[in-house]
Amino acid sequence: MTRRDLLVASPALAAAVGCSRGPDSAPGGAPVETAKTHQWHLRYAPRMSFLGDAYSVEQHLEIYADYGFRAFEYNNLPRNHSLQEAEGIRRKMDSLGMEMGVFVVNSGGWKGDALVDRKFHEGFLNDVRTAVDYHKVIRNRWATVTSGLSVDYLSLERQTENVIEGLKKAAEIVEPTDLTLVLEPLNVLVDHAGYHVVTSELAARIIDGVGSPHVRILFDIYHQQISEGNLTNNIDKYWDRIAYFQVGDVPGRKEPGTGEIRYQHLFRHLYEKGYQGILGMEHGLSGEGLAGLEKCFEEYRRADTWE
């Protein structure tokens, strides 16, 4: 189905891709900038689940591309689609000039069956091998790995050593490819009680222990604001170990502009540091449906605007 056919077949979709245009000019004659006309400083990547099951993957990508986004995230790609289906997604990406950010490698990473205990390593490494199969089709350059919950029968230090050991083995699997595994610290105060890797400092210690350019940090700004704050300084401190960023405001984990984080400052800081990677929109929407998506992208436009 072509983009024109898609819009004709779906009046709601046509409204979505047209509703941000607004008036052609302000009363004084100056053009009105919207999320659709904005020239993005950074490579923001909407998540695949924003519009839910009512829209296909291809329809999501059409909408995102119409707003000028050239990247997207899809956490559950390896679990929701066969490799053959992934090939179809790749073709759609190519037609729109889009790149995929992360998907999540290990589905058990928010539980105990991940990296903290050696007995789970073989299952984790099988997930890494599957990730490589999908990477060869989708050609994403990053994929998320998670440590899992701490266990009460091993010391914290022993668990950290196990995480390092497991990631060293994973690095050997991905080293012949262009894929980088990004380890994500998560907060334990709101969302992931008991999770092992919480701070940027511990994540950096693990990355240093692994010692591979194919294993880096995913710095999720939402999680790290809750866990440690001091965002700008921590980004600078661990810059050489960070390969990927994700976005979400605090509290509520919605789009920028809905909470306490000064995203315009952070986005400009990343831009001025020369960040060329992807920033994943790893959050919910403060509004519902297409109108909520429109509001979200307008908030990104505001946060991405500076002189």
Instruction: Give the structural class.
Output: alpha/beta
Instruction: Kindly identify the CATH topology.
Output: TIM Barrel
Mean pLDDT: 91
How many domains? The number is: 1
How much helix, percentage-wise, in residues? 40-55%
What does this 3D model show about the protein?
It is a single chain. The longest helix has 19 residues. The protein is built from 12 helices and 8 strands. The N terminus is likely disordered. It is of the alpha/beta class. The strands form 2 sheets. A 6-stranded parallel beta sheet has the order 1-8-7-6-5-4. Helix content is 42%, strand content 10%. The N and C termini lie far apart (40 Å).
